[in-house]
Amino acid sequence: xxxxxxxxxxxxxxxxxxxxxxxxxxxxxxxxxxxxxxxxxxxxxxxxxxxxxxxxxxxxxxxxxxxxxxxxxxxxxxxxxxxxxxxxxxxxxxxxxxxxxxxxxxxxxxxxxxxxxxxxxxxxxxxxxxxxxxxxxxxxx
Length: 141
Known about the structure:
- By secondary structure, this protein is mainly alpha-helical.
- Helices cover 59% and strands 0% of the residues.
- The chain is built from 8 helices and no strands.
- The longest helix has 15 residues, at 99-113.
- It is globular and about 40 Å long.
- The termini are far apart.
């Protein structure tokens, strides 16, 4: 549905994020993925945020990348973490994958790592990649 506003995703619901990082960001007024993207789109913004909060730049970059993936319909806490951990760390990166290759990579990651989530089904990877191709690139590295 064009123009449909999606509910913001709370950063604390991404798997594997240190709660102290979430608390420090909340003190800066950053609680949601859209706020994280606005605060950390560029390298200089991420560096400044790291200095202001005492959060390592690597942790900020990780949250920015997870937030970028969460822009995709159906990709939230568990799915964003699966893609990120499997090496698909941004919408731009996602857009470059072929569906069967993405399915194989995520399935292999789940099987080898013991990740507590299910790999995406073929229809899901196809729609996720198509959605990624339709979203603008917003991160700068």
